[in-house]
Amino acid sequence: MNKREFLKTSGAFLTGTMLSRLAPAEQVAHETAHRTNWSGNLQYHTDNLLLPKNVEEVQQAVKSCTKLKALGAHHSFNTIADSNANQISVKALDHMSVDAKARTVTVGGGVTYGLLAPWLDSQGFAVHNLASLPHVSVAGATATATHGSGSRNGNLSTAVSAMDIVTADGNLVHLSREKDGDQFLGAAVGLGGLGVITAITLDVQPTFQMAQVVYENLSFDQLEHNLDAIFATGYSVSLFTDWQKNRATQVWIKSRLAPGGKADMPAQFYGATLATKKLHPITGASAINCTEQQGIPGPWYERMPHFRMNFIPSSGAELQSEYFVPREKAYQAIRAVEQLRDRITPHLFITEFRTIAADNLWMSTCHNRDALTIHFTWKPEWPAVKEILPLIEARLAPFDARPHWAKMFTMQPSRLKQLYEKLPDYQALLKHYDPSGKFRNAFLDTNIFGA
Ligand SMILES: Cc1cc2nc3c(=O)[nH]c(=O)nc-3n(C[C@H](O)[C@H](O)[C@H](O)COP(=O)(O)OP(=O)(O)OC[C@H]3O[C@@H](n4cnc5c(N)ncnc54)[C@H](O)[C@@H]3O)c2cc1C
User: Fold this and answer.
1) Is the N-terminal amide bond of 297 cis, ω within 30° of 0?
2) Rounded to whole angstroms, what are the CA distances from 425 to 282, 333, 432?
3) pTM across the whole model
């Protein structure tokens, strides 16, 4: 348990009122310590955290509450997982099983990618992609369309083939891609609105090796005509920039290797120079918490994330925002944001560009379009950042940029409605499974039902 976890879970005790409501399951914890999200920028608006030990206890808890919100690994930056009544964590549901014939893995709703990945690899399998960090839960990450990079890789939600959800009436509902058509497409990026996911099934593929190579200083001019080629160079490619000097400070190329194969490491890449040592995306930060680079082969799960499992990812105290623009307009969108560089850079740790393939999931940020994402890791300076976000959103409006559901944005609900053609269907799906709004919180009331 790290210090953050300790602060968040220490001092937990059971309250009499809640216990009498939920006994005999004894699954309610009341945390006296301040309860915050991972970054510490959000203090949750309830102290009531329910910790069921099995699916039956989840069902009992759901039946007992009029308002409830599932909490995953608490990595979201905004209030999407917040509640002013009760939160429920299913981290005790940590089972994992592979169906080798079907090429799927089914995991409990509490399993993180960090837990899943090494075990899955030991079974001879891999998932198609990972986020920049493995610490997030599968249920929580897929609920918000969390993604890695790779022009031909869909986001993590596209690997979901089925899920078990305890819905508002306490029933356990099984939804699958194969059998449930539209309902499944609406539920896969569920934003925590349908209920509590107790198990989730993902597509897997045979395990593979990867290597990561980093280049420094790629001119933005190269992106005008070579953006697609640059992002297609590896299985997963990321560009980092501080927006100054018309260039990406680093290019991270993650390539799949054939057995016994070696990474391609030319000295130059579109004018960028091969790095001579392991680098952190934030110039000057220690690279100790980063995954191995310099072409050293390793398993997929130790190369696809930027950050190693047992280390604090990214910067730590930070804020994040991210916008998804159509791939074919990516260069123009980058140039539009670049005009704000002198407003952005003083408050920025680093920006990252990634690519993601289109999908058909209703609330996915890549619904019906191949995307490039423009991501901002901000210093923890919300008063300044909240002034800059509307400027960025205005610059990106002509490109119909969609904000990451789990990061900071200031876009109005009316604009979100324009950006998601399936939003009315998603509203209807929530009303079907949750007529009284048990799983709705202020985030969903505003951003989904507020327009
Ligand atoms: C350092 C850092 C790096 C990040 N890197 C990336 C990245 O590379 N790519 C990217 O796309 N995002 C990234 N994120 C964002 C992150 O992936 C999302 O915030 C993700 O949703 C977090 O998952 P979680 O398990 O922490 O869920 P939470 O933040 O706890 O919850 C997120 C949502 O999932 C719902 N949920 C959680 N568990 C369940 C459940 N069992 N049943 C039903 N609903 C549930 C919640 O209600 C909420 O709506 C990063 C975040 C951090 C802090």
Assistant:
1) no
2) 41, 29, 10
3) 0.93
